[in-house]
Amino acid sequence: MKRFAIFLTVVLAITCSVQGQTTEDSVKATINRMFEGMKNADTNLLKSAFTDDPILQTIATNKKKQVHIKSDKYKDFVKFIGQQKVGEADERIEFETIRIDGPLAMAWTPYQFYYKGKFRHCGVNSFQLVRLEDGWKIQYLIDTRRKDCSNN
């Protein structure tokens, strides 16, 4: 009986570990799908990563160093991506932090954005995702944008 209890504990530990990894991987896959859609100018792939009514915002500073928040319309973002040629909108990210609580996930991804092969800006994306019946979807994306990547 003791061996069975040890075996069951090991199986449960492995199962929990694999499920956690799979969930984190599926969050990453959703975010990567968005960037793949951007890079390939594939609006269907891009839209598959989002909820029906996501919020897109950017934190920016003006010349006086005043911080303001700019909201973008999702349909305008999709339209812009659809007008690009393959490879023109290339955002390169790193997954720094992912946190998950049931159907809610957040991801923190530093990035560098290249447009038509030239560096444009860098910053950090903060994603809020929701796990729906058809998988993880991006509900909220806010980012910072700056020209100098050396200071955070």
Write the layout of secondary structure elements.
Blueprint: H1 2-39, H2 43-47, E1 50-61, E2 67-72, H3 74-82, E3 89-93, E4 97-101, E5 104-115, E6 118-132, E7 135-144
Parallel strand pairs: 1-7
Antiparallel strand pairs: 1-2, 3-5, 4-5, 5-6, 6-7
User: Whole-number average pLDDT?
Assistant: 88
Helix and strand sequence: HHEEHEEEEE
Individual helix count: 3
Residues in helices, as a percent range: 25-40%
Oligomeric state of the chains present here: single chain
The figure for the number of domains is 1
Would you give an account of this structure?
The chain is of the alpha+beta class and 152 residues long. The protein has one domain (2-144): Nuclear Transport Factor 2, Chain: A. Helices cover 34% and strands 43% of the residues. The chain has helices at 2-39, 43-47, 74-82; strands at residues 50-61, 67-72, 89-93, 97-101, 104-115, 118-132, 135-144. Strands 1, 2, 3, 4, 5, 6 and 7 form a 7-stranded mixed beta sheet that branches. A hairpin with a 2-residue loop joins strand 4 (97-101) and strand 5 (104-115). Residues 4-21 have low confidence and may be disordered.
